[in-house]
Structures
1.
Amino acid sequence: MCKYLYNCVKNHQPKYQKIKRGDVLDINNQSIANIINAQGDSRFVIICEHASHFIPSEYQNLGLNQTQILSHIGWDIGAQALSEQLSKLLNAPLIVQTHSRLLYDCNRPPSAASAVPEQSETTIIPGNTNLTPAQKQARADSFYYPFHQSVSDFLDHRQSKTNSIIVTIHSFNAIYNGVERDVDIGFIEDLDPSWSKALTLATEQIPGIKGAQNLPYSAFDGVTHTLQMHGTNRSLANVMIEVKNNLIDSAPGQLHFALLLDKLLRENLN
Ligand SMILES: [Zn+2]
């Protein structure tokens, strides 16, 4: 196991098989991490941990209905499509997680209660309640470790690995717990605020869009786990970008924000 993974599994048989770098499969031969545009020569490497709402059939939708799974609790609406557009514009590699965060939130360490959430906003997740430690470990083995191993392996072998910049792309709901969020796009840092600050300042020059630093979340909410593992721990620059999901829930919105982020990222590259 890679030095960037904590608590490497020693006494458990992982429920995945490693076929080749960047192609880690679960027990149904469903890839855990897809690497798109792997040869992209941009300094940016885009990661989208909440890209998918897919739940394999053996989990019986975790006791939820399809409407609940397709809502923002199951995935980051629009984030993968936006990331794919941005990957093309920047010619940057993109790594996407291919399963719902309700199975395992790959932006959380196994020690976090929210890694396998029993409740998301106001929705109880029946298939996640009262799991035994072994069942939680099995979720981490199935999703968390193979996903981050894929990211680590990719970064280990990347030609421009010493100056890559890690960008994670997420989306957030306009209303959370009944409160409307007064921000369109947020730039969040792990430890180094260089990129989050620069991107927030640059967004202030764009009419009609409200940008903010460390909103609607910040590192204090535990949302920078991926940045820490693959950015900060490797001394690579990093930033998390959160876009309001009703602005990127259709193709025109996704392209609009991809063009905007392409410009912002390129213009702030030294
Ligand atoms: Zn997210």
2.
Amino acid sequence: MDLGPRAALGTHDEDDVEEVADQSAVVAEPLLCHSLSVGSKRLGTGNVIAMSVRSFTASRVLPTIAHGSLDDYIEAGGGVGLRSARAVDPDVVIAELEASGLRGRGGAGFPTGTKWRTVAAFESSVLSTSMVVNAAEGEPGTFKDRAILEANPYAVIEGALIAATVVGARDITFATKRRFGDTITRLQAAVAEVERAGWAQDIEIRVVEGPDEYLYGEETALIEVLDGRAPLPRIAPPWRRGVVEVVADDDDVTSRSGLSADVEMATPTDDNTTPPVLINNVETLANVPAIVAKGAAWFREVGTEASPGTIVCTITGAVQHPGVVEAPMGTSLRTVLDEVGGGARTGRTIVGVLMGVSNAIVTADELDLPISYESMRSRGSGLGSASFIVIDDADDPVAVAAGASRFLAIESCGQCTRCKLDGLEVAGLLATITRGEGDDHDLQTIEKRLGTIADGARCSLASQHQMVVGSILEQFNDAVAARMASNDPVAPYLVAELVRIDDETTTLDESFLTKQPDWTHDEVDSGQMPAERLGEHRTD
Ligand SMILES: Cc1cc2nc3c(=O)[nH]c(=O)nc-3n(C[C@H](O)[C@H](O)[C@H](O)COP(=O)(O)O)c2cc1C
Ligand code: SF4
């Protein structure tokens, strides 16, 4: 049965729906593009300046002109989804989300409707569920969540309020990073406006400023931070163990009674005392209001069958114009790189695209691949958070591999021995090779360590390391051979989190250059695992 918006959620004002429908007339545009000049000065006046793009008029989650106030957002159709969601049974909203096929934009592409249904089913009989917005954005080469939060925070807040309403959460936490100064200011102001307008009702909204670590974005590590500890991934998934830690007394923390957050995987027969948490990415939630207001069929008007809707991509590296763009799923990678990125740098040839540090590298002969979860997966890679770091023939692939490897090895928390130790060894050997000092034995050792690095891994960082480095060495074997034959050093390639894209200039987090494997910036690394240094009641 087609649960169109009016049929399914038909309690809202018809005029509102028409207004929103008009806003959506842009979906047929081949590319919905946006500037990345979202500097604080411009945002102060509510503007996002469009640039270097041929065909943009509007968009679904990233407006061409930032919504400067809640009134602007309402004028553009905002608020209809929340009113509709509050007027129907939560199951109707979940069914609509399932029908829409919306997949989480945090990296894994997990179906959002399925996640909401699971969290709702694991509701605690004692304590209420929590809602968390993952705004930790730490994937190298990604800026899209901050772009959305700066240009359209109201859609994210509305999406989170809908989510909280549906799963029965009484609190919403925006988990940001303390280094996201401008974005946080903008978000806090938007939250205050929404609260003043009465949208939050009795739902408490807070904005938390978390640590810089990459792992903080991993959802269970994020819950640990919200619970007051270091960003160390848990075993138990969020729908079983949420933000609210059920600890009767101190003994529960040290004796591993199962009542603390440090628990083994809960089983389906477990009691449901501990409340779950629903965690969604910023972009995922920004999509929700319009799906609820306009329906699954509208959402599916763009995109592919398995990856409906649009996706907000960040393009950095060896292109003419780095930027953020919202494109329909199914647009080719080449179109995005050419039309938004302006193509290769003058006199250079693109040789590959690093998909953040989460998936196998995409090579030049694969640039016509459509941007979708299924197409990237079919070629042994993945879409991740649509971070496209472009590599050209001036970049040394081994240096790129060394940069990615260093990032992942340093950011590994060390709860799983192989992830940290093999990771550091691989990074060290690649660095040796880039200095022109490597030999074949080093290369063999790298291959061997990549074979064991993910053994017993608690989260996917270890397999990311395996895939990213393994794929570069495999796909660029000629360049690797040339590098092995040379004694000349090659310049290091910095892979680090994006601090900003302003006026087409990208700023990477250069403080990462001095970050030690123990997560300090001390002159000498202590040799301790971060988990040893920072862990509390966590021993394995
Ligand atoms: C190492 C690591 C880092 C991650 N960083 C982020 C992040 O910065 N932001 C994010 O939304 N998801 C991140 N994720 C994915 C989250 O764990 C989680 O899947 C996501 O927040 C779920 O939201 P979604 O279903 O809306 O995509 C990361 C995962 C891993 C393994
Ligand atoms: S796989 Fe690596 S990053 Fe993930 S929990 Fe284990 S040691 Fe930490």
